[in-house]
Inverse folding.
């Protein structure tokens, strides 16, 4: 009977940071993956798997434990831009329609005002 050639894959090395370690790294502006200074857009030389840990206190009521666990899960959220080290865009382009006329809409998240191109208003017969 021939032996099967099985390839084994290595699991990536994990680095577990406690909530105190995460807070300390934020205060010092250190990268979560290495000990270098964090800057937006910076990329680490190695990729790491980040996992949160939760230490459960068994002396509390079930209801209190459930509330704390829900709060803890919210704290573990991290944006894709933060994980990858990119700066998120400030504008978003979407397609829309005004009075049946197709238009491209640019949403600027850093702006408090909205505007419509004057030539677009004339084409659609809108008052400007």
């Amino acid at each position: 009977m021939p032996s099967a050639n099985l390839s084994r894959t290595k699991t990536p090395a994990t680095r577990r940071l406690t909530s105190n370690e995460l807070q300390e790294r934020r205060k010092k502006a250190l990268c979560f993956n290495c000990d270098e200074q964090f800057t937006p857009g910076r990329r680490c030389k190695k990729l790491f798997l980040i996992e949160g840990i939760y230490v459960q206190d068994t002396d509390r009521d079930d209801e209190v434990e459930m509330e704390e666990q829900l709060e803890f899960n919210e704290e573990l959220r991290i944006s894709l831009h933060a994980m990858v080290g990119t700066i998120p865009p400030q504008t978003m382009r979407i397609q829309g329609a005004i009075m049946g006329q197709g238009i491209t809409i640019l949403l600027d998240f850093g702006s408090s005002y909205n505007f419509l191109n004057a030539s677009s208003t004339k084409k659609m017969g809108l008052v400007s």
The two ends are 83 Å apart (CA to CA). Strands lie at 14-17, 49-52, 91-98, 101-108. The chain has two domains: 14-84, 91-124. The chain has four helices and four strands.
